[in-house]
Backbone:
């Protein structure tokens, strides 16, 4: 992915505990997708623990790709250079009951969010097919849930915070930023990194 890339750090959205098998990431093993049908072209993985580290990393390297929960079943999620994983910094979940939105960090999965929302008396109207898929990853790939009238999962996003190639943090909202927001909320990137 070239530097026009952005990393979604959080998303404000309008509810099984299955643990994803991701424990081998930092033990030097070959990095594969969740289904095991794709072996990624590099195991070069950086897992920042702060937004500052994310910004520095993105500024430093011209070629990188975000690694989510690795549920993508094709090479659109592959990188020949390096991955950045946001799982260590994105566990935020904040509910605003008055406007019925929840803000989630980039590491949050639908399984975590669903259980947490349920404990607060709320639920999402639509979900990805597996609980351990990250909200950010599902939204950015245009993943759909169920029901022809529900829209893809990205249609539930009200606002985004993301880092651009220059390391700057930006915010876009559906109500204020119109087409710019729509262009950012889903992003499918080619495998080839030029
Ligand atoms: C075109 C497409 C359509 C899909 N449709 C469906 C569907 O309808 N229903 C379903 O259940 N599953 C679907 N999947 C499978 C799965 O839900 C998606 O791959 C989803 O992205 C998985 O999230 P993940 O965190 O595992 O992402 P990964 O598989 O790790 O990565 C997928 C893509 O998302 C990017 N990405 C991940 N996190 C971030 C982030 N924080 N910021 C920026 N980019 C990020 C990655 O760089 C990569 O390009 C689809 C996959 C693809 C490729």
Residues:
């Amino acid at each position: 992915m070239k530097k026009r890339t952005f990393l979604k750090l959080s998303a404000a959205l309008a509810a099984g505990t299955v643990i994803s098998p991701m424990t081998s990431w930092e033990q030097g093993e070959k990095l594969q997708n969740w289904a095991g049908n794709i072996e990624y072209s590099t195991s070069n993985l950086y897992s920042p623990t702060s937004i500052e580290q994310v910004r520095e990393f993105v500024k430093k390297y011209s070629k990188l790709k975000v690694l989510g929960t690795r549920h993508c079943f094709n090479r659109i999620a592959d990188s020949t250079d390096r991955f950045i994983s946001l799982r260590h910094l994105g566990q935020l979940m904040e509910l605003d009951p008055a406007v019925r939105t929840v803000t989630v960090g980039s590491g949050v999965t639908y399984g975590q969010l669903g259980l947490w929302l349920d404990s607060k008396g709320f639920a999402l109207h639509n979900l990805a097919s597996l609980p351990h898929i990250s909200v950010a990853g599902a939204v950015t790939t245009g993943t759909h849930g169920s029901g022809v009238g529900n829209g893809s999962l990205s249609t539930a996003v009200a606002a985004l915070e993301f880092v651009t190639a220059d390391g700057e943090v930006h915010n876009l909202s559906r109500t204020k930023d119109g087409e710019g927001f729509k262009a950012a909320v889903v992003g499918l990137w080619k495998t080839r990194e030029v």
